[in-house]
Amino acid sequence: MKKPLFNKVCIVGVGLIGGSLGLAIKKYRLARWVVGVARRKETIQKAFRLGALDIATLDLKEGIKDADLVILCAPISEIKGHLKKIASHLKRGAIVTDVGSSKVEILAVAKKHLKKNMFIGSHPMAGSEKCGIESAKAVLFQNAVCFISAPNQKIESFWKALGSNLVRLDARKHDAWVAQASHLPHALSFALLQKIEYSSSKKFKLNSSFKDLARLAKSHPKIWTDIFLTNREALLKAISSYKEKLGLLERAIRSGNEPTVMRFILTANTNAKKVS
Asked: Which of 116, 131, 139, 179 is the right S-S partner for 234, CB 3.0 to 4.6 Å?
């Protein structure tokens, strides 16, 4: 039998992403032992029922003991807190990674508290508006883009084994990209759903376009508050650019300027074909 990449992997935070990682690691036999660190006993029970973990604990220090790979799967503020706590409890040669949706602040904390080359930032673009281990799937990372912050053979082999497509990108470029591609769409959805009449009316059936936008507004409040505030600079630039473009469309519609409205939509058509 093929030797696993790791002897022991510890997943800190066993929700949708952490639970899916546990299932995938076990499915592809990437570790002999998968240990989970959770905040609640109920989560541990669910993880065992799903078969996502071999061992589980509520104690962070106990969970990461002797782990070859530690994966931090929590809201960004919690990831930063974990990075401050774990350094003295990691085994020699251990690798630490995360799944946070912004990278600059996480890498700054890791650089301060962990030894050089011990931390490799990761961001698998594989989540959904759902949360909790009950939504975990072993195939969640199949064909997903996964950003990594620096070269590391073990981490690259790990994400590839889960079926992800790797993109190496430094933290600032990553945060600028996700601000436009992921964080801004979520911000727009949250803003759109501020008006309750859109979603509460029973007099008509909402069309699929609105439902697609509304889906993002179901995302976890704590996770997305952390994302917005830890990537505020890049996100504010993206919002400013969006407001400028929306203002252009607003003025064209107000003045009845058909050519400008048409060009606006045609430009969007062209750009959409590049990303579809």
From this structure: 179
